[in-house]
Input
Amino acid sequence: MPRGDAEYMDRALSIAARGRGLTSPNPLVGAVVVSADGVVVGSGYHQRAGGPHAEIHALRSAGGAARGATLFSTLEPCCHTGRTGPCVDSILAAGVARVVVGVEDPNPQVQGGGVRFLREHGIDVTVGVREAQAARLNLPFFVRVRYGRPLVMLKVALSRDGCVARQPGVRSAITAPPAVRDAHALRAEFDAIAVGAETLLVDDSALTAREVHRVRPLTRVIFDSRLRTPPTAAIFGTRDAGPIVIVTSAADVVNAPEQAAALARAGARLLQAPRHDLPSALRVLGAEGVTSLLLEGGPKVHAAAWEAGVVDRVRLYVSPAVFGAGGVPWFVTSASVRLALDDVDVRMVGPDECTEGYVHRTD
Output
């Protein structure tokens, strides 16, 4: 690998992150054009789904200086026509001499085809520079392509003694305002936020991202196998914040037609999964274009997701408060979850400890 490739790819990765929260269901991509003498002459990132790809922005930025230069792209350039034309055609037309790719695109419409096309047309191509970082940047995209479901991040707030509430059926404030704001900022990064019906019944939360800027509507998901969600729930007063989706089954709708109709009138869209299990529900959401989902509660839904192996990331907020014997325990100890995580980051958010990491995978 030529000297400097990793440095330029790091720059492209940093630029790609500017599109966070804006490009779904497309991946985050950054690109940098570097002249033969090592000068960055152009850069760009994918800004929104349906808009020009990162490579196009970078080539336009470089103009004539792209001829004979090296293009660094965090993801393999596309070779098919979707809502935009193939990036490989523009790379050829610009006269780029070399292309450096972070990671191969897992999309079956590309998956090595872009690299192969460029090589067949005389362009030198290097693949795999900062590959792990490039893949991690687009984990939601990779998960959806590979498994047909959104990336799932499990988020929970716990008391110091591992409880999610002071007592059963009672909504409980656990973390301090700084952690609450931090959690709302996290919501703004995701396509969708989800809870189980029991959590909705207890908390009656609107599931919105407050005090943060969000360009796209936030999809609010309720996993409700028995259609217990009341049409009068607070969430239905916030329909302008984004779609409200209730994931249930065809049998549930048939067994409770009046409740299903009332929920539809209130503003919910009912999605019917083939089975009463979380993997089926997640695949239904994936088919709807949801690439990332923040799973906020409660313990039963968290347990089902963890046991089904569909949790990809975890964020734990732990408060110094102690709820005691009457508290409602989480489904597992936070210590055992931490042992299953890679790339763990621990920080303080006000008085609360925040631990985040990726679930270790062997498949």
